[in-house]
């Protein structure tokens, strides 16, 4: 009986404890619901204006307030600071003074509280006549790939200005873009529109994101749509015939059928044949589309022909000059000087001397003062660069040890050959101090027209014959095509006493200059640092033995010095890597991707791989992080069967060092894919 009473009492006690816990829990939950953050600071800092654009040399007054949860403003004392002091300065009264183009954050602090505002500084001389051009305008990426977008302010005569832009992706599901740097990252398959904004001006670019990369489909080419004329001025009632072409990496064009449209029909209409008819004053874009590719051109419509002629004459006056250096090519001894002069030459050929900024580029063979007086210090071949505003010009200087160096010069006989072995053009005879300027060659050797070959004294130890033809990697049909990422190239075959010597090494480097088609830099969105010159033996690309590369975008020339002659190509740096071939007499029985060594590594490691088969094949070797994002393309091109090794320096495609962590490296071909892991420890 007593045990039953004890059990009953214990049950009642537990029941009452449960009821009390339930009641107190409910009260506590209600209390938390009424005040979920009892310790949260009731104030926040608001900075006005929150987002603004100013011009260099101007000032803007920022104001900050403490605002409570009810929205009531409270005045207090703030400490002002600027995240990027390069663009200007801010006083403790909140007055920002702009000194340089760029963007940053204005920070107002009061104790532990702070608020920010965005500020962009642009050049004081940009006007409403400018538009925003994004490079590239249209491109195709694969999921996981990244692309550095660039934007410029461009006026109607093509002059560009750099400034800071705010980047936005209108479809962040397909891809995201860094607001400040313009780095786009493809997330999912689909179509993304990227915008770059400065002030009231906005530019757009289209990006198609696919599930598989173009390198996994060797038959597919990277193409762009070129619309001509790209920027034109007309008046109401007039018609303009636009044309569109597909353009590949080498600048070769091909015709196809396009679908035409206009940005809006408030200023004009366009027919299915590309005939634009101006209907009202305004400006906008004309689009030509085929499949997923789109190109565009800008049209400005004025009220009548007089206004149109006035605008055209002003632009024609601004663009009627080109810069020229005299002397163009010269030979000088060590210790001597040469006086260079620069001239602006108009379309009628009238030249007027002008002041420029002088610079020695390529091999540092001497110095040049602000007045253009060059002093030769070291033997070799160098380039003199003159720059005035948007104009640039180049001149070549060959520096010899003494005048006696030219008393005994070996000779070079140069012949051009086509693929069938037939000689094309004239026989060229030149000495070691001479420059061969190539011209007059028919298709397909016309890609060499405008190129140059320069020998310096001491290059040779005897007379040679030089045969120049297309490299093996070039394909010829209606035009000349190179593998993706390669813009142009040549095969240099040296014969000594009629016997081919491959490769042929020189006593001193030989300078070669490759012409690049006009407009290709802008079309592909290439900067000079994006291009390199490489040897292309056995299908691999290697820069060992290539030095003093100079890219002149104004003349469309790429200069380089070569220690020996074989196949030499100009390629986009992100498309190639320093790949060394091992024993080519050994043909592997299977594709193999070896463990990297050392592993873990810091700062670089070596990756080896074998390729089997009987024919050359396209492959790609890339580095990925654990999120599957590609951070570096080490190898991309056509390779013969054999064993290869390549170095990775721990940097991404933009030259930035990656952080400590685990990375994947993947070797891909048409019918295989191999992946391994490696660790970078700093």
CATH class term of the largest domain = Mainly Beta
Low-pLDDT stretches: 29-39, 124-128, 213-220, 314-319
CATH topology of the largest domain: Chondroitinase Ac, Chain A, domain 3
Largest sheet: 7 strands, mixed
Shape label: globular
Give the strand content. over 45%
What is the subunit arrangement here?
single chain
How many alpha or pi helices?
A: 3
Which secondary-structure class do the elements indicate?
A: mainly beta
Strand runs, count:
62
Domains, number: 7
CATH architecture of the largest domain, by name, is Sandwich
Instruction: Kindly provide the radius of gyration, computed on alpha-carbon positions and rounded to a whole number of angstroms.
Output: 33 Å
- Helical proportion? under 10%
Mean of the pLDDT scores? 78
Q: How far apart lie the N and C ends? A: 77 Å
Task: Briefly say what this structure is.
The protein is built from three helices and 62 strands. It is mainly beta and 682 residues long. The radius of gyration is 33 Å and the shape is globular.
């Amino acid at each position: 009986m007593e045990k039953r009473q004890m059990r009953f009492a214990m049950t009642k006690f537990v029941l009452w404890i449960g009821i009390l816990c339930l009641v107190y829990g409910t009260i506590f939950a209600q209390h938390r619901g009424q005040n979920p953050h009892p310790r949260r600071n009731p104030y926040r800092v608001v900075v006005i204006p929150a987002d603004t654009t100013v011009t260099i040399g101007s000032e803007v007054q920022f104001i900050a307030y403490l605002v409570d949860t009810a929205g009531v403003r409270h005045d207090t004392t703030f400490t002002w600071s600027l995240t990027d002091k390069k663009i200007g300065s801010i006083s403790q009264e909140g007055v920002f003074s702009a000194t340089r183009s760029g963007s940053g954050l204005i920070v107002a602090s009061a104790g532990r509280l702070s608020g920010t505002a965005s500020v962009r500084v642009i050049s004081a001389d940009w006007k409403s006549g400018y538009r925003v051009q994004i490079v590239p305008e249209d491109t195709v990426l694969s999921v996981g790939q990244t692309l550095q977008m660039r934007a410029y302010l461009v006026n109607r005569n093509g002059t560009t200005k750099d400034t800071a832009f705010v980047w936005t992706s209108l479809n962040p599901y397909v891809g995201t873009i860094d607001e400040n740097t313009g780095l786009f990252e493809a997330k999912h398959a689909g179509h993304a529109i990227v915008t770059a904004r400065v002030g009231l001006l906005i530019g757009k670019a289209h990006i198609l994101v696919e599930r598989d990369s173009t390198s996994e489909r060797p038959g597919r080419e990277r193409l762009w749509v070129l619309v001509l004329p790209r920027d034109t001025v007309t008046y109401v009632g007039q018609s303009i015939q636009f044309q569109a072409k597909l353009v590949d990496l080498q600048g070769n064009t091909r015709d196809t059928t396009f679908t035409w449209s206009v940005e809006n029909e408030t200023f004009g209409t366009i027919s299915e044949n590309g005939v634009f008819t101006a209907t009202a004053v305004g400006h906008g874009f004309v689009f030509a589309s085929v499949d997923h590719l789109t190109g565009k051109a800008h049209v400005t419509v004025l009220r009548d022909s007089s206004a149109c002629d006035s605008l055209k004459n002003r632009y024609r006056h601004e663009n009627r000059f080109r810069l020229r250096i005299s002397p163009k090519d010269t030979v000088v001894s060590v210790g001597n000087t040469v006086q260079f002069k620069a001239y602006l030459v108009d379309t009628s050929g009238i030249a007027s001397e002008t002041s420029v900024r002088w610079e020695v580029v390529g091999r540092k063979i001497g110095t040049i003062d602000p007045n253009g007086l060059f002093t030769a210090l070291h033997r070799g071949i160098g380039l003199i660069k003159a720059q005035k505003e948007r104009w640039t010009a180049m001149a070549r200087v060959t520096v010899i040890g003494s005048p006696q160096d030219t008393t005994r010069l070996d000779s070079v006989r140069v012949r051009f050959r086509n693929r069938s072995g037939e000689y094309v053009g004239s026989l060229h005879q030149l000495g070691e101090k001479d420059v061969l300027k190539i011209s007059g060659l028919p298709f397909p050797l016309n890609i060499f027209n405008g190129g140059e070959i320069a020998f310096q004294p001491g290059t040779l130890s005897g007379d040679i014959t030089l045969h120049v033809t297309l490299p093996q990697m070039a394909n010829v049909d209606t035009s000349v095509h190179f593998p993706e990422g390669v813009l142009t190239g040549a095969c240099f075959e040296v014969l000594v006493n009629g016997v081919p010597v491959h490769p042929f090494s020189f006593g001193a480097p030989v300078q070669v200059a490759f012409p690049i088609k006009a407009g290709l830099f802008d079309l592909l969105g290439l900067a000079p640092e994006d291009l390199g010159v490489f040897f292309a033996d056995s299908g691999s690309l290697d820069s060992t033995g290539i030095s003093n590369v100079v890219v002149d975008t104004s003349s469309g020339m790429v200069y380089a010095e070569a220690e020996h002659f074989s196949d030499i190509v100009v390629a986009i740096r992100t498309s190639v890597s320093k790949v060394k071939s091992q024993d080519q007499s050994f043909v592997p029985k299977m594709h193999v991707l070896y463990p990297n060594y050392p592993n873990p590594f810091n700062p670089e490691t070596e990756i080896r791989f074998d390729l089997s088969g009987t024919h050359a094949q396209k492959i790609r070797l890339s580095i990925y992080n654990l999120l599957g994002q590609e951070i570096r393309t080490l190898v991309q091109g056509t390779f013969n069967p054999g064993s290869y090794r390549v170095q990775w320096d721990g940097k991404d495609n933009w030259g930035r060092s990656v952080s400590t962590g685990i990375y994947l490296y993947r070797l891909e071909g048409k019918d295989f894919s191999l992946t391994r892991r490696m660790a970078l420890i700093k």
